[in-house]
């Protein structure tokens, strides 16, 4: 890939943010995904919720480049932008997420990557089932989600507020916590601990913001269909999730 490749929206906003904290946090998250993705060299990979294609670009440029990679997204504008930006990149394609309903995609992928998506969906269990359907038997699932419980939620709320004042970052629909809700979030277990707000996009689709997302609950939901092999935190792998920014799951289709 040429070094003059046009940057994507999320790459500019996250990896090249004016905030060094934001840039560092997202860069280390991508590093984990690329490291784990080396197992998928020469195989078939799906990036579910690919955004501007940054992860697939990095993976295709790595030593562990897959033979075929497909990025899907809900945004048709992003899909068309990615097709234009990556035109001519052998083995790399993009499609609307609805295309995955076609029968030929069932069990068609050796690896599936989903980064920072499931915190926004209304029914994570449906997506767990969908990932299971799309992966080949024994297929690898690489999944990252933000940590929004434990002491992390206090730090993140403060950072978001400060960056909002500075005009840095984009956090649509970040609902504030009441004091009792914040206390429940800090001491949350593997059950839903606060009511999650539901927001509506202009097209009528609905989504959650980060408030109330519980990665420990997701871990239990994953266990019904996947064997979780490893959990790693970022941006610092030796920090416990209680004070981390993101959590990565490395899981295998049962």
Protein architecture, described:
This protein is α/β, with parallel strands linked by helices and 254 residues long. The chain has a single domain (9-148, 210-253), classed as Rossmann fold, CATH 3.40.50.150. Helices cover 34% and strands 23% of the residues. It has eight helices and nine strands. The longest helix is centred in the first third of the chain and has 18 residues, at 20-37. The chain is globular, with a radius of gyration of 18 Å. The chain starts with 8 loop residues before the first helix and ends with a strand.
> CATH H level: which superfamily?
Vaccinia Virus protein VP39
* Corresponding CATH architecture: 3-Layer(aba) Sandwich
What's the CATH topology name?
Rossmann fold
The number of strands is 9
Q: What class would the helix/strand composition place it in?
A: alpha/beta
Described by strand count, sense and barrel closure, the largest sheet is:
7 strands, mixed
